[in-house]
Structure formats: C-alpha cells, structure tokens
Amino acid sequence: MKTTVTIKVNEETLYKIKNFYEPHLTTNHNEHAFFTAKTDYCTITAYKTKKVLFQGKEAEREAAMWASIQEDIQNKQHQSYFLESIGSDEVGTGDYFGPVVVVSAYLDDTHVKKIQSLTIDDSKKLTDHDIKKVAPHLLNLLPYSLLILRNEKYNEVMNESDMNLNKLKALLHKQAITKLIQKINKNTTIIIDQFCSIDYFKQYINDSKFTKKINFHTKAETKFASVACASIIARYIFLQEMEKLSETLKITLIKGASSKVDRQGKQLVEKYGKDILRRIAKLHFKNTEKIEKLSI
Ligand code: MG
C-alpha cells in the first residue's frame, strides 16, 4: 500500500477537499501550499497548482476517493453526495414529547445503486409518509447503529450537573459511531450533521483520538447520502416511538414544542397526574413551566 499519493484536481474539487477537511486544517508556511490538513490517518497538502498530496497509512484510499469524486465532477454527476462514509444524525431534540434518537449509518459503493432509486436527497423535505416508505429499505440495506434515549432516562441524564443538550448529543453520537465502526470493522470517513461548534464538541467528548476522525458539516444531510440515510432512519424510529407512546396514552401526541403541545400536556397531566411528563416529555423545555401555569 502506497503511503504517498498525488492527484491533480480542478478548482471545484480543490475547494470541496478544503471544505471537507476544514476541521483538520493546520498552518503551512510553504508559500506554494494552498492548505494543509492533518487527520489521524492522513496528511493532505494541496498546492496552488491544484496538485493534492496525500501522505500516511490511508493515503491511497483517501486519494482514490477524491480522484473518483473529481472524475464525477468532470462528468457533472456530483457524486460526492454518495461518498463512502459513516453519517450520523439525531432526531427528537426539538420535540417536547418523545425520545431522542441517534443513528449512524454506513454507506459504500455497493449500496449506492440501490440507494439512488430511493428519493433520499433533501430528507428534511420528506413527509412522515415518505419516511415510512423509504426507511425500511435503508434498514435492510445498510449497516447502522441506533440509540433511543427514552424520556425517563433522558430527564435523569439532563439533570446531571455539567450536562447540556449539545453535550448529550455529542456523547450519543460518539456511542453510535463507535458501535458502528465495530460492526463494519473498518476505517472510513465519518460525518456528523453539525449541531455545535467543533471546539465545544471536542470539549464535550474529551477524547482527541475520536474527535480527530470526525468531520462536522452543517446541513450534512443535503451534502452526504450517508447522513441523509441516518437522518431518515432516525426519523422513522422516532415516529414509531411516538406512535407507541400515543397508543398507550390513547391520544395522538403532537410533535414540536408549540402552544398546542402545552395544551396537550395539560390534558395529559389532568388525566394521568403530573408525573406523566417525566415519562413522556423533556422536562427542561419551557413547555413544562407553561403547562403548570395553564388552566383548562
Ligand atoms: Mg441534525
């Protein structure tokens, strides 16, 4: 296996590469260099001549990935969307009722053809109905790992000193990703849909060996199919959990955190007592206070 590989790219790919490795950029005093990035497994030096040098134990794999993206960009297929990678996303953190679900999903070339026939791009725009149609295929097709943090446990954890929602997300993502890496047993690009600054993420995780491997991207589900798939699976599982809760409570729980949610919360408290919220809702939301103040 080669440990040094150079490829020549065009401007579009060059900026894509820079953007991709952004969390890992380091200073380079070489006047011919455009940027240098250092990950755990590879050092990438891009030159103003648009030559990109990959060095390290994963140099060959990393360079091959970008060479293929470059080829696709030239063919105007924009396949970087289907980059071989682990994508990770979470659902339910903005909903007063129901759990938090974190999913990491792995996508490689063998999955791409099958995935392409499913409408997964712009997963945020998919309706619940679409999610229910698409997600079972993804669950069948892709290696993934899944964490469901139900409300009782969620409220317990959020009560710990030094805990906040972003820290909790960071820890859950780490757990899901670690599980998935063990499952697929290989090194690959890891992308998280960004929810806080990289510095905070590092601080929350406090494990530089892990954080060095992570690529953080905002709106990652629109940029990488692996994240889109993770996001769809997470929404699917969240919907299922909400349906189960709704069935037990004999009421269709409302998603989000609006005043409609407050009124429904009030109804539930009237019917089941105050303690019900601890078991079905995220207590630290302002909704809890609003529900207490509401009178029917
Ligand atoms: Mg997200």
Topology-level CATH name of the largest domain = Nucleotidyltransferase, domain 5
**CATH architecture descriptor of the largest domain:** 2-Layer Sandwich
Order of H and E elements? EHEEEEHEEHHEHHEHHEHHHHH
Helix content: 40-55%
Low-confidence stretches: none
Strand content: 15-25%
Number of helices, where a helix is a run of at least 4 consecutive DSSP H or I residues: 13
Report the principal-axis shape. elongated
Under CATH, the homologous superfamily of the largest domain reads: Ribonuclease H-like superfamily/Ribonuclease H
- Beta strand count: 10
Query: For the residues shown, what is the average pLDDT?
Result: 91
Query: Distance N terminus to C terminus?
Result: 70 Å
CATH class of the largest domain: Alpha Beta
Radius of gyration: 22 Å
Please describe the biggest sheet, giving its number of strands, its sense, and whether it closes into a barrel.
5 strands, antiparallel
Structural class: alpha+beta
Number of domains: 3
Strand order of the largest sheet: 1-5-4-3-2
Q: Which small-molecule species are bound to the chains here?
A: magnesium ion
Quaternary structure state of the chains depicted: single chain
